[in-house]
């Protein structure tokens, strides 16, 4: 599958219905998800392997991993509404993906690779920390999204856990007007995707 074909398929992933601001429910842009996952695939971190998506939402990174030939894919989220959308879409495209309702701290299984776009901590300070901790407990290889200005913190946190960031890439992340506290029609932020090993 070409990266552009992957992006086209990911555009079909359902949007959040009535998103919860406390969970920072924003759909990962298909173009960014496709680029990150295609890079992971090229690195040998997807095909034939078990992939976990922590904070999967409606399943953007889960579906992308499945499309790229992951041996098994498991998505975890605390939102029943988001998981219902993910499950419905999986059924419509015959995707063999397991979606589980769970707080990230209660996840107790491992994987070869974790892919995740955790809350950035804009609503709940340090919300991404639990995700990083669980990801490092669960897998040797992690691809994770963060606000670009937190990169130094993420590097330090990873180092304290005897891991290292072997790759990082900055993306422009467009956040559409979603909640009442948004003052602009569209807001662009810089995010960084890191590969932790």
TrEMBL record:
Matches recorded under SUPFAM superfamilies: S-adenosyl-L-methionine-dependent methyltransferases (SSF53335)
InterPro entries: rRNA_MeTrfase/Polyamine_Synth (IPR051720), SAM-dependent_MTases_sf (IPR029063), Small_mtfrase_dom (IPR007848)
All copies of domain Methyltransferase small, residue ranges: 47-135
Residues annotated as signal peptide: none
GO molecular function: transferase activity
Name this protein carries in UniProt: PrmA protein
Originating species: Candidatus Methanoplasma termitum
